[in-house]
Amino acid sequence: MKSLKLGGIVILILCVFPLLYLTVLSLTTEWIFPELLPRALTGFHWNFFLAGNQSILMTLLNGVLLSSLVGIISMITGFWLSYVISFQSNRRSWINLAYLPYSFAPVIYAFLLQFYFLKAGISGTWSGVFLAQLLITVPFVVILCAHHWTTEMKHLMECVYSMGGSECYAFSKVVLPMSRPVLLLSFAQSFLFSWFDFGFVSVIGVGKTKTLMLLLYQYIQEANPYIAACSALVIILPAAIFLIINSKLISRMNVLTQD
Amino acid sequence: MSKLNCAKISFGYDHKMILTDLSFELPFGKTLAILGQSGCGKSTLLRLLGGFLKPSVGQVSVSDLDITSVLPEHREIISLLQTPLLFPHYNVFDNIGFGLKIRKLAPDAIKSKVDDMLLLVGLEGLGARMSNEISGGQKQRVAFARALILSPKILLLDEPFGSLDAGTRIKMQGFFNDIKTRINMTAVFVTHDLKEALTIGDLWGIMKNGQLTIFKDSVSFLKHQDSGGASEIKFWSQYIQSPNETI
Amino acid sequence: MFSKFSLYFYLILCLFPITAGFIYAFLYSLGLIGAMNTGFTLNHWKDVLGSKELLSSFALTILISVMVVLASWWMAVTILRYYAKELTKTILKNGLLIPLTLPMLIGAFIVMQIFRSGGLFASLLYKIGLISSAQSLEWVNDYWHIGLGICLILFTLPYFIILVLQKYDKHKIPELLEINTSMGGTKSIGWYRIAMPILWIETKLSMLLYGIFLFGTYEAALLLGRQNPRLVSVLIAQKLRKFDLQTIPQAYVLSIIYTLLIVVFIYLFSRKSYHEVS
Questions:
Q1: How many degrees, rounded to 5, is the angle at CA C135 between CA A34 and CA A219?
Q2: Contact A18 C24 (CB under 8 A)
Q3: Which residues from C are below 8 Å from A240, CB to CB?
Q4: Which sequence spans correspond to the domains of chain B?
Q5: Which of A23, A213, B22, C159 could form a disulfide with B9 if both were Cys (CB 3.0 to 4.6 A apart)?
Q6: Stretches in chain C below the pLDDT threshold 50
Q7: Stretch A223-249: mean pLDDT, rounded?
Q8: Dihedral of the CA atoms A195, A201, A207, A212 (nearest 10)?
Q9: CATH value at residue A78
Q10: Does A127 or B17 have the greater pLDDT score?
Q11: In the A/B pair of chains, how many CB contacts fall below 8 A?
């Protein structure tokens, strides 16, 4: 920090400020105008949020389960699809197709599809939200993984074929080990999309599939900023963990593809 | 006599022909050095021979057996590219032994063969090194070893020394000739370097406009207008003033 | 065989849901289906296209998206100009990733708390004597969408800083600026004639894509936006959720217009990215 100029320090403070603000907000019961800092810090709301409420724990577990499954299915499906389309002759056009669902605002996409989910009887259900989120996360993983299928990767696979190995063998012994960073990145990004999702959960889920994001919105609507801050910090936690893993993954990806 | 035979091979993309009516024979134990400029179809020919492309017309056969439709994994033909592509997550030992694992050899047999191959290619003691811990010339030797350990019928080399510096390149040419003699290798070697073609070839070919002209002796190859031999001789002769002058 | 099946699956995944949703919305907007369907009618389309509220909503959304993207880009490039060396330091590189961990709803919540009347920013201005009461500052649900703009810029800026920094390194702009200096050019000339054009060309596709995302922004608009006109996504959601069945066809008309705009933007993006890759 000492080596940073004043401008760099200001930028750093601005980056960290939201987390600091949420932390202080979560540790107080009263922070009113014109106070710049709350009068007292207390763990009251954290106690309520973490220890006193069974439904919050269930909501948390539900969210983890939903996001983990979305992450796993998206990672596998998207990775395989990116492999298939990356070796097509008009590769660019195939990849650009994935931008279409990816660019839609989830809430509007959800409204467009709501009728079909209602007819299928999965509106307001966990599986309905799960399927709806996959509609965006799978194309997203395709975009993420598309750059991974380089000419070098193709030649390495051909190397295996020329040595007598099958496509399955090339995948299991060469492609998958080399693809670990991009697979983990795909899982992390899909997990976070689902974890942070509000549009699909509120429209397709109709508020019945409880996630922390819905809970946060509820606290904001109830004008309870202190509890909202607690839930916000819990929501951010996996993102922070993945961020640390992601930045290491990205540098590992660079090392693996370097000569 | 066993040989590689290409008969009237044609290949193209979207109405643009890359190879037209290409034919040649390569007896086993010989190296065909193909010279040609960039974009003339040399690499396409190698990919056809390797089975990664299928000719629109024509036939590829080895020892009179038609392999035109045979998958790459069943041809026993191995390719080496200009950039030595090693598996980055395996060390040198595992890279070389990779093909033997596909063939499900016992670990002891793999170790014995890989150790012998490391000795043959001059990389003994480097088995534990990762691919990013060795030099460009060493990487190319590992790629060679990985191919040779499987005793392929034919080796296809696409400018394998192109990315190396001049000194290493000469060493690798010597290494190739040495290996070629020792194991009676059959190879198709593509290059755009005349000297390299002359050094390593037993037969020579000039690729131009998708057609291949074969030469069985180096003199007729050198004299051909498209080999660049005449211009090379003219270039070097301007630096030699008298018969007694040496460099 | 499996690859062919995978390709068909991929096509269906990308195109079928949007097409199906579009068809439903289209038929509903023409009165051919739905609870209040009275047979074919163009009245809902006429209502929307003739309505000031609805068209100003679209105009506002496009305006905010464009302004946020351009303002963020300009700020990112300016920060890069003066702090390029600082930005290469690990602590700052990692620090810039922190705002990217915040989802839009949380970011909007924080902005709401800070910039509402009686919020932290109002307290700060009060302490330094710039305002006299809490009500003097209200940047949430305000006329000029200041709070919404701040939120969207604060979200966009870190991403753009990382993006321009990557392009700055990839295209060796510091070396190019040195060449400019050695040819007698001033720092300003170097920056405005070399660095900025390169950064603009290299980032405009990403800016277009980000603009498309901002066009559909919902959570931030829901918490921080004005009641009238509302941003498109909020307007659509509120019309669809109202108990007034008359507004539902209008919401679907808006959804169709939104969908068509997205398809056009993606088509433009595809063409640009194709030509740049080729």
A1: 75
A2: no
A3: 98, 101
A4: 86-151
A5: B22
A6: 276-278
A7: 85
A8: 10
A9: 1.10.3720.10
A10: A127
A11: 63
Touch of A by B (3+ CB pairs closer than 8 Å): yes
Q: Is residue C152 part of a domain?
A: yes
Domain count, chain A: 1
- Tokens 């509903």 belong to which residue? C28
Cα distance between residue B95 and residue B90, in whole Å: 6
Which residue from A187, A191, A195, A224 is spatially nearest to A212, judged by alpha carbons? A195
Task: Kindly give the confidence (pLDDT) of every residue in chain B, 247 residues in length, as a single tens digit, with 9 standing for 90 and above.
Answer: 578 999 999 998 777 888 988 999 999 999 999 998 888 888 899 989 988 888 989 999 998 899 998 988 888 888 887 788 888 888 999 999 988 988 889 999 999 999 999 998 889 999 999 988 999 889 989 998 998 888 888 999 988 888 888 888 888 899 889 888 888 889 999 998 899 999 999 999 999 888 899 999 988 898 888 888 888 888 888 887 655 655 5
Quick check: C107 contacting A, CB < 8 Å?
yes
B contact chains, 3+ CB pairs < 8 A: A
Cβ-nearest to B102 among A152, A164, A177: A164
Counted domains in chain C: 1
Q: Return the half-sphere exposure (C-beta side, CA atoms, 13 A cut-off) of residue C92.
A: 24
Residue given tokens 């074919």 in the structure block: C40
The pLDDT tens digits of the residues spanning C130-144 come to 888 877 788 888 888
Q: Determine contact: C71 vs chain A, CB below 8 A.
A: no
Chain B residue with minimal CA distance to A170? Answer: B102
Kindly report the CATH number assigned to the domain that includes residue C238. 1.10.3720.10
Chain A residues touching residue C240 (CB < 8 angstroms):
111
Q: Is residue A17 part of a domain?
A: no
Among partner residues A15, A34, A217, which is closest to C158 by beta-carbon distance?
A15
C191 domain-assigned: yes
Q: Which DSSP category does B201 fall into?
A: -
Choose among B91, B98, B173: nearest CA to B139: B91
Is residue B186 a contact partner of residue B155, using CB atoms and an 8 Å limit? yes
Q: Is A25 part of any domain?
A: no
- Identify whether the C-beta of residue A206 lies closer than 8 Å to the C-beta of residue A194: no
Chain A residues with CB-CB distance to B72 below 8 A: 158, 161-162
B91 touches chain A (CB under 8 A): no
**Chain A 29-48, residues with CB within 8 Å of chain C CB atoms:** 32-36
Q: How is A107-161 classified by DSSP, letter by letter?
A: HHHHHHHHHHHHHHT-TTSHHHHHHHHHHHHHHHHHHHHHTT--HHHHHHHHHHH
Flag whether C257 is in a domain. Answer: yes
Q: Tell me whether residue B235 is exposed, middle or buried, using C-beta atoms within 10 angstroms of its C-beta: 0 to 12, 13 to 18, 19 or more.
A: exposed
